[in-house]
Amino acid sequence: MSGKKEQKPEISKKADKMIDNHREFLDMDTDEEDFGPQESPEVEEELPPEPEKPVFTERDLITLVQYVKDLTIFFSIDDKNSNENCDETIQEYFKNPSHVVLSIFQKENELYAVLNIPNYTPKGFVYFLRTPWQVYTPENFLSTVLFGSISGNIKSSILKFMESMYAPAMLRSDDCTSFIRDDVFSNLHEFIIRLSEEVYKPMGLTTLYVPKENISKTFLEPSEKIDCFLLGEDIKTILLEEDERKRKIVDRLEKIVWAWIKQIHRETRVVPSRRKIEGIQEEVNYWNAKHLNLNYLKTQLLNPEVRSIIDILRNLRSVSVNKFDELARHIKERLKETLSNLTYLNILLDFCKNLTVPENSENSITEVLLLILFIWTESPFYRDTNNIETLCQAFSSQIVHQCKNYIKLDVALESNPEEGMKVLKKCIFCCDIYKVIYDNLMTNVVSYINSDKKWDVNKTEVFNKIDTFKQRCYDVYEICEALVLFGRYNKIGLFGGTRGIEYDAYWREIENIFYEILNEIIAVRDIIFDITNSNWLKKFKRFKYTILQLENMIVNLINDIFKSVKNIEEGIEAIYTLQKFKKRDSLREILQNKWMQVWTIFNNEIEYCYTNAINASKIYELSEQKTDINVNMLCISQYLKAQYNIMINAMDWIGDCVIEQCTLQQYRHVLDVIDKRRKMFNTYNTYGTQ
After folding, report:
1. What's this model's pTM, rounded to 2 decimal places?
2. Who wins on pLDDT, 524 or 36?
């Protein structure tokens, strides 16, 4: 971490004048009762003048700056590129000895310098230290400089320095008096132990701190007398200084061993609070990490320095050794357990790698669930209800993960919502069939495997993610439906009539509002299938509220359009323009009502034609001058048939209507009446002519 050369601090200049802190007072014959106590004037102390700053030539500064750069090493900077202020800052460090620290760090392939510790340096930094007002010169810099480096991982760098450099030097130094040595050493050990946990625990490793004291040499030939008093059995014995030193070392060693015991106990005995597993691979990774850490612990127990400390305490009959040996044996048991679990899990993982969901859901899910039942029967660890429940949850997570990868949100929410809806249906079916297969197997197969053993897994916990994921699929499906309805994927027809431009502008407004809310959904699509993120519920609630408003706007548009519809051609044209809205349940009903309105217009046309035909007949019978009524009747008949054909053709794509049969029956009746009347008048005219 650091490179240190013998430091020879410069003797700063002293002030030319010393301050005299003593004053002479004159004896006075005055009476204190008359004059009161005499106050002494305050003494104004003068601060010593600041040492003079060194003066360097330009050549000296160039040499010192180059020394700093030569000792500064960064992997990606070979030519020591520095920014404009870097050299000036380094020169300021030498010209003003009041600055204790100089730091050099890399940023964007350039060197930067600060006269302090930098706030954030992900690639680490190089530091130069000195005592205040120690003057570096080109002659003494390389022989007195104290420098080192800190990597981007500050905790790790400090740990390596403390454990490998500072602690060994401190423990083997005689600078500390015997009075404070034990406190200093104990606190040093405790600090390094805690720092080790901070560094290695996030890695999943349990590292035992081994102090770098001369333990073997100190306890090479311990006597029985020493064995007794070292553990405090003979408190009244007057100890020699060497014996007291050994007692202190033993106390420190026992604290360290108890720290080891705590670490090993946490790894082998304490059941960790398992977070939710996100798949079979993650379960395998968990046990691989567990196996690696246990092996790492086992290797550390074979360390000669560790064995030496344990042997010393064993000779001294320390109770900590028995606990330590017990936990050491338990490491072997835990290793067997992890190997057993990994054997079964790797087989399950191979099956899950070939899991084909949601395409071939039924067969794939059945195979994996049967394998899970086999593991539940055979594995010593997974026989436990909580553990097999964790495994089932991992499988549920695996299904969710593969379905999420199968869904292409950019297709569903942008380019092809109908294709996205097909994919979502497959995923929903996969979730449903998984539940069905699970229920069948656990109900019908478990009893045949072992009638004495009960499958007591919490089904709610197993399918919690599945149910949440399925609901998210329904949410996206609803968005796709809205995109088909309101989006530009299926374009709406052109509005006819005199107000067609007005209706078209109104529809564009609806489209724009829809795409505003859709873009909000697309912006957060990464959280849609993140079933742990509840923010999606707020976003989707806002989306549904906006869609409800748009539906109301469309209802108003449809009602407004049909206010001006006067004949069946206009009505059918309007329905054709709005036909894509029939895909929406809430709008399908209003379109059916408008289709009924068109049938009502047709029915009115039939009645009008019937009335005209009857009136024409009466006029013909009463009129003395006979007109050609046959042409009139034929026109009415042809007009009705033309209207009928329009309605029948529209029925092919619009569908049936509740008043359809009644209206068609009325149509046939009127047509029959007109036909009979026309034939009757033809016969009458024939006989009249004869």
Report:
1. 0.69
2. 524
Q: What is the pLDDT of residue 379?
A: 92
What DSSP letter does each residue of 607-672 carry, written as one string?
A: HHHHHHHHHHHHHHHH-SS---HHHHHHHHHHHHHHHHHHHHHHHHHH---TTHHHHHHHHHHHHH
Distance of CA 37 to the CA centre of its chain: 78
Please state, in angstroms and as integers, the Cα–Cα distance from residue 685 to each residue in 198, 620, 630, 690, following that order.
116, 11, 10, 9
Amino acid letter at 594? K
Distance CA 502, CA 499 (A): 5
Residues 6+ apart with CB under 8 A from 370: 441, 445
Report the C-alpha gap between 559 and 474 in whole angstroms.
Answer: 31
Name residues whose C-beta falls within 8 Å of residue 286's C-beta, 6 or more positions apart in sequence.
274, 277
- Beta-carbon contacts of 296 under 8 Å, excluding residues fewer than 6 positions away, are 205, 206, 207
Q: Which of 388, 362, 385, 363 is nearest to 375 (CA)?
A: 388
Smallest CA-to-CA distance from 492 within 598, 592, 574 is with 574
Taking the mean position of all CA atoms in its chain, how far away is CA 435? 27
Task: Give the pair of three-digit tokens for residue 299.
Answer: 């290797």
Quick one: pLDDT at residue 18?
Answer: 35
In the sheet that holds 2-4, the strands lie side by side as 2-4, 146-150, 125-129, 101-107, 110-114
Question: Reduced to 3 states, what is the DSSP secondary structure of residue 415?
Answer: helix
Task: Evaluate whether 146 touches 4 at the Cβ level (below 8 Å).
Answer: yes
Q: Which residue has the tokens 């009928």?
A: 644
How far is residue 58's CA from residue 63's CA, in Å, rounded to a whole number? 9
Lowest mean pLDDT among 176-180, 351-355, 539-543: 176-180
**SS3 of 505-538:** HHHHHHHHHHHHHHHHHHHCHHHCCCCCCCHHHH
Q: State the residue for tokens 């949410």.
A: 475
Contact call for residues 287 and 342 (beta carbons, < 8 A): yes
Render pLDDT for 552-584 as a digit per residue (tens, 0 to 9). Answer: 999 999 999 999 888 999 999 998 888 888 888
Neighbouring CB atoms inside 10 A of 196's CB total 21
Q: Could you tell me whether strands 101-107 and 110-114 are parallel, antiparallel, or unpaired per DSSP bridges?
A: antiparallel
Of 626, 612, 618, nearest to 687 by C-alpha is 626
Q: Among 328, 4, 365, 351, which Cα is nearest to 161's?
A: 4
pLDDT at residue 26 in the model: 34
What's the mean pLDDT in 495-502?
A: 78
In degrees, rounded to 5, the angle at the alpha carbon of residue 250 between the alpha carbons of residues 248 and 253 is 115
> Would you tell me how many other CB atoms lie within 10 Å of the CB of residue 278?
17
DSSP conformation letters of 59-120: HHHHHHHHHHHHH--BTTBSS--B-HHHHHHHHHHHH-TT--EEEEEEETTEEEEESS--S-
User: Residue 228 burial by CB count (10 A; 0-12/13-18/19+): exposed, middle or buried?
Assistant: middle
pLDDT value at residue 511: 92
Q: Extract the tokens encoding 690.
A: 């004869």
Identify the H or E element spanning 127. Answer: strand 125-129
Residue 541 exposure: Cα atoms within 13 Å on the Cβ side: 5
Q: What is the DSSP letter of 242?
A: H
- N-terminal to C-terminal alpha carbon distance within the chain: 133
Cα separation of 504 and 508, whole Å?
6
Q: Specify the higher pLDDT residue, 227 or 434.
A: 434
